[in-house]
Backbone:
């Protein structure tokens, strides 16, 4: 499922959609649309309020179950240990926090800006007997209400692309990490295998919205999710942003030919 390719990605093809660099002043991307910066958070909240109840089912359908393998690799990279404390940003319905606890990790904070997603995560934790050592907190990843140097690991899986100010999220992640702590991001990225691109585009823009309509009764939210993937910084750009935020020893590994990637950075 994974490779350790660290090559500079090729330039995006036209099917990758517009790039974020052409935003009019005071706007940001919401999928392929430009929207006022002040409105994006509420728009994203509406998307996840809509999809929360079907989120896990749709993840399996959207990725053909591959997201489970990606998350397993990601949790292994986090290196769960009883003495380490995890902050799981945009943790949603809990997969990363659950994997951390099952792997022998210490206390975890499952956080998300969206209370609908947290509610699903709380129900899932109760049904799995994973409440001990797990705290649920509504958190805006751009303004984390946690003291400096207070956690050993910060994770964000399939959440950073929905944040308005991604660089600020990275800065906040570094701030709350203890020296020697590690930040890890799992996110959809830029496909590195040319033969995959047309298949992936067709799946993203033709199949996924239809599945969203059929399974979750919400075509528009899944159209946004497909578009948000194309607007997300590619592997090298995100690595540079992490360095700009003050993280060091930055690296990444591609998963499934670059459909997703795990980025890693440390607070030294």
Residues:
């Amino acid at each position: 499922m994974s490779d350790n390719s660290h090559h500079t990605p090729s330039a995006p093809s036209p099917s990758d959609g517009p790039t974020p660099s052409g935003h009019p002043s005071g706007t940001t991307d919401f999928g392929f649309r430009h929207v006022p910066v002040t409105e994006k958070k509420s728009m994203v909240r509406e998307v996840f309020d809509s999809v929360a109840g079907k989120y896990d089912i749709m993840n399996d359908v959207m990725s053909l179950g591959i997201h489970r393998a990606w998350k397993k690799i990601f949790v292994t990279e986090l290196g769960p240990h009883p003495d380490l404390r995890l902050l799981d940003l945009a943790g949603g319905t809990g997969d990363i926090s659950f994997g951390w606890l099952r792997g022998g990790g210490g206390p975890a904070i499952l956080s998300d800006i969206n209370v609908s997603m947290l509610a699903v995560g709380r129900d899932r934790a109760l049904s799995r007997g994973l409440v001990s050592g797990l705290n649920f907190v509504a958190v805006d990843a751009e303004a984390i209400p946690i003291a400096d140097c207070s956690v050993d690991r910060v994770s964000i899986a399939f959440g950073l692309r929905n944040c308005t100010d991604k660089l600020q999220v990275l800065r906040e992640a570094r701030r709350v990490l203890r020296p020697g702590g590690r930040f890890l991001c799992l996110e959809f990225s830029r496909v590195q295998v040319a033969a995959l691109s047309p298949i992936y585009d067709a799946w993203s823009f033709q199949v996924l919205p239809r599945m969203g309509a059929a399974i979750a009764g919400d075509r528009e939210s899944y159209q946004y999710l497909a578009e948000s993937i194309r607007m997300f910084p590619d592997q090298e750009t995100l690595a540079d942003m992490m360095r700009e935020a003050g993280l060091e020893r930055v690296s990444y590994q591609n998963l499934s030919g670059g459909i997703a990637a795990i980025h890693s950075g440390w607070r030294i």
User: Anything to note?
Assistant: Residues 55 and 93 are 8 Å apart (CA to CA). The mean pLDDT is 91.
